[in-house]
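Per reviewer request, we include the raw input and output of the structure prediction for the construct analysed in the revised manuscript.
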Amino acid sequence: MVAGIVRGGDEDSLDELASLARAAGAEPVGRVIQTRSTPDATTFVGKGKVEEIHDLIHRTHAETVIFDDELTPGQLRNLEERFRVKVIDRTALILDIFALHARSGEGKAQVELAQLNYLLPRLRGWGEAMSRLGAGIGTRGPGETKIEVDRQHIRRRITKLRRDIVALERTRAVKRGRRERTGIPQVAVAGYTNAGKSTLLNALTGAGTLVADQPFATLDPLTRRLELPTGRAVTVSDTVGFVRKLPHDLVEAFKSTLEEVARADLILHVADASVADLADQIVAVREVLGEIGAAEIPEVILLNKWDLVDDVERARLARRHPDAVPVSALTGDGAAEVLVRLAAALPQLQEVTLLVPHDRSDVVPWLYREEEVVSTDAGADGTLVRARVSERGLGRVQAFRVSPTAARAQG
């Protein structure tokens, strides 16, 4: 059963909560909504709604009630004492889904850290609830001593996980540093969960990323190389999907992973054009981008799943988002335009003339591999190269720059 507070009659968040519950393996059997501006400090919803939920639990035999906002430890205890079934909130549900999809060592450590940070202040309420469910109503809880032992164990585990994540981040930083030193622009694919980011990455690069019609199917970032129509190479990284009310502890735990977005030269913001709350999803993604320090990075919005949108809606979306690129990652329609817009939005290359000595045989192959070579001409003093290079690449070849006039004289 799902329950929550809505403001202004908008139930999209409750619809999404039901979808998240299904992704976690639960089937909602009822919904209770209360319209109010602020939650009740004691039970989140008002007393009347608490009784309505209680009655619905017994009619439907619901085993769990999921609330659409994060509950305080006190609210959690009060609700479980009244309902005598498991009560969880949106944060716990999202953490559970992340735990289902974590594959890499880093991903698992990040999710566990977020779960333990969430659990620690709620330990008493969770302990009593689990004891009650496991051994029947009326059984004593774990007791103060057991709770304190658990609390100390969790704190030690949190400390270890933080150390492990720092060590794993060093490995990620080395790999990221290598990419940055090449001068290849870095593009991050970001967007709301289930918007089609992984399908788009597959369409553009043939990456073979896992594609699943469920929230948070991608937790571990995947980076692939992509050649643009101009011949310029970029790296494209898939990232974890965002969602409204994304738990703060989860954002903190995934900071190292989300740095792939924060350090990008360009963000491809993939939005699902077929959903009714498209504008809200775009805002939610931008809020998370701001939280991780990526708000100022240039962005290209892609309106994905265009094949699911009728002509009337297409016209409306085109008016509301005139700079967005319509695309269907599933069919491939619009993929060519995505590459054109991506190339145009990247930091522009600077054209340079270089005289590369013959004993620096590594430079010209590197230019062909990482930058754009316009022409080469072998001379007595070295190879004369005209190339378009990125700002990062300019530092590597600065020592070989010559003026066009000097180059003509060399020729």
